Amino acid sequence: MPLTFFLLTYGLIAVESNVGLYLNRIGTALCGAVAMVLAGALSPAGAGGPVAQLFGMSGAMLVLANLVSNVPAVLLFRPLVPLFLHPHFVWLALASSATLAGNATSFRSVASLIVIQQLRSRGGIGFGQFTRVGLVVAVVTTVAAMTILAFEFLLAPHL
Q1: Could you report how far apart the first and last alpha carbons of the chain are, in Å?
Q2: What is the pLDDT of residue 6?
Q3: pLDDT tens digits, residue range 43-74?
Q4: What is the rounded CA–CA span in Å between residue 118 and residue 124?
Q5: Out of 40, 55, 68, 118, which could bridge 72 as a Cys pair, Cβ 3.0 to 4.6 Å?
Q6: Are 76 and 64 in contact (CB under 8 A)?
């Protein structure tokens, strides 16, 4: 059984990697259009200022990272980062929210797959059950991370 889980897990990673690469190619082709839409919503001149933009960007990343995986989602934002006055904070926001987005659904991280496998012997947990808790965890931790980052920005914007 553990060998089956091991092979299945790495098989899923291989499939996701191939799908991710395919979506990455599509994303690269559409990157200009997506970048224009995101730039309009999150531009440095946009309403709300830098702190609101960090929260908006992290929310968009939570959604995108669960749709196309975290690496292609970050790559879609990559052309926008130089447009911001404080790209260091933008990269920190993207990295943390893309990472924390993996907690939302069971198929976004290997750790989640291992937890589900371990719970299977105790009655199991379904996708819906995991996602209900995972979404709360992902949103709460992302809001906490963005709040810490916002305070860091307000206290030391020159970093």
Answers
A1: 50
A2: 42
A3: 554 556 778 888 888 888 888 888 888 888 88
A4: 8
A5: 68
A6: yes
